[in-house]
Design a protein that fits this description.
Blueprint: H1 5-16, H2 19-39, H3 44-64, H4 72-90, H5 95-100, H6 114-143, H7 147-177
Length: 194
């Protein structure tokens, strides 16, 4: 919720006032969120990235003079994520495997275990598909100058990806613990010829 606070503050202040009030409110909220993350001893990098993203969004909105400008950078992010997801699948190292395998307790050679590779491939392609929908919605509502809807779409993606992460971790743990989990491909050796 802390991550979404500046967006919620921006949309609410913009609906009640003007762009300047919305930018000031988002800035103050972003600084408060930064302080909260530091107080909770969350990684400093995450806190700084959140603050920088809000600053960049506010800068774009200031330059364009439009509330929807606040959502231009977030509207472009899905397209970058799609490219990363598809690329990692094509090179045989699906993104969720690279990011989540260790968290799920999967083996280091997960790419050699067909079942795990399949889970991470499906999960990564699901992330890409969600980003296709997200990107399309953001483009449509950006063009229609609907900052309220852009804010809702932006906030709604967090829980969707949290569900994908949770399901991926659950499937990896289940596959790892299952009795039918096949041996890694690297462990399969051809029979000796005598």
């Amino acid at each position: 919720m802390v991550t979404a606070a500046p967006t919620v503050a921006f949309v609410a202040a913009n609906a009640l006032g003007d762009l300047t009030a919305a930018l000031v409110t988002a800035g103050v909220t972003a600084i408060a969120a930064f302080g909260w993350r530091l107080y909770r001893r969350q990684p400093v990098r995450q806190a700084v990235l959140g603050l920088l993203l809000v600053a960049a969004c506010a800068a774009v909105a200031t330059v364009t003079g439009e509330a929807r400008g606040f959502f231009l950078i977030p509207a472009l992010i899905p397209f970058a994520v799609i490219a990363v997801c598809v690329t990692t699948v094509l090179i045989g190292r699906p993104l969720t495997g690279l990011v989540l395998n260790r968290v799920a307790g999967g083996p280091a050679d997960w790419r050699c275990v067909p079942r795990l590779r399949r889970i991470h491939t499906v999960s990564t392609l699901t992330c890409a598909a969600v980003n296709v929908v997200n990107g399309a919605l953001q483009v449509v509502y950006y063009r229609d100058d609907q900052p309220l809807v852009l804010g809702i779409v932006h906030i709604a993606t967090g829980p969707v990806f949290a569900v994908i992460v949770a399901i991926t971790i659950a499937f990896v743990r289940r596959a790892k613990a299952g009795p039918a989990a096949p041996a890694p491909l690297s462990a399969v050796r051809p029979p000796r010829v005598r």
